[in-house]
Write a sequence for this structure.
């Protein structure tokens, strides 16, 4: 509570009246905070040594918001610190899901992936996919980026943890040598959410009192937009209306081989 009080003060917000723990916080504690005066905000609270993960999330939310393509919760305070490891966010009230809202998310993602994002692959800072460190060194070549910052480190990490048999490790390392036959070297660079499974999509009220699907908890990087779609097809998936709207907006079939490689990561 003291950390939240300091974060609210730093953000120039009223003091907290009450706090309620929200579900869904896989790593950090997430609370709905009702302020004096009735406004509600969200506080994501980490331990002092994990505050950099909250800063990574803040940066990703800010970069996604700058595109104007997808709905994300607004960041309400300064970056978290070791002394105040709290990320303050806009509270997004839940709303009943509609097919139209899911279709709009598909269209929103197509616009996001079509928005110019520079000429290289990577990101301005490293971050985490869940608790897994994610390197984002800039690369001019998408295949090299995947070898050195995505699949390569993931394969080695699994082997070091004893989760791969030597034969499996060898097969996966050989796969890295074949990436140039599986992935394009220069897909159009797009800002990616990066962790777009169904648990990071929230149906909420829109500004015009309609319904819209917001995205939360990003692990952003610049890469091939199909990498987001690959993640969306895992862990329960998304409604067919969402993926159909994305396909209609993109106007090209899903590249099955690329999707499979991205899902391996």
């Amino acid at each position: 509570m003291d950390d939240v009080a300091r974060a609210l003060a730093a953000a120039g917000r009223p003091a907290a009246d009450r706090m309620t723990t929200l579900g869904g916080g896989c790593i950090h504690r997430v609370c709905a905070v009702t302020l004096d005066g009735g406004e509600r905000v969200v506080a994501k609270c980490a331990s002092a040594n994990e505050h950099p993960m909250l800063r990574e999330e803040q940066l990703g939310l800010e970069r996604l918001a700058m595109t104007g393509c997808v709905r994300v919760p607004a960041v309400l305070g300064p970056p978290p610190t070791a002394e105040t490891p709290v990320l303050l966010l806009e509270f997004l009230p839940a709303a009943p899901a509609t097919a139209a809202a899911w279709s709009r998310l598909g269209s929103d993602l197509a616009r996001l992936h079509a928005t110019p994002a520079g000429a290289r692959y990577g990101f301005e800072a490293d971050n985490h996919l869940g608790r897994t460190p994610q390197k984002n060194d800039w690369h001019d070549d998408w295949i090299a980026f995947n070898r050195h910052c995505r699949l390569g480190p993931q394969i080695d990490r699994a082997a070091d943890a004893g989760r791969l048999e030597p034969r499996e490790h060898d097969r996966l390392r050989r796969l890295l040598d074949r990436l140039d036959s599986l992935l394009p070297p220069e897909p159009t660079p797009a800002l990616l959410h990066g962790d777009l499974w169904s648990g990071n999509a929230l149906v909420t009220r829109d500004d015009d009192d309609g319904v819209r699907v917001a995205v939360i908890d990003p692990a952003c990087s610049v890469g091939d937009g199909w990498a987001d779609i690959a993640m969306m097809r895992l862990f329960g998936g998304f409604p067919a209306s969402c993926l159909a709207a994305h396909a209609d907006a993109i106007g090209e079939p899903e590249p099955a081989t690329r999707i499979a490689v991205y899902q391996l990561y």
In short: The helical segments are 2-10, 51-67, 99-114, 142-160, 166-177, 226-232, 240-250, 256-264. DSSP finds eight helices and ten strands in the chain.
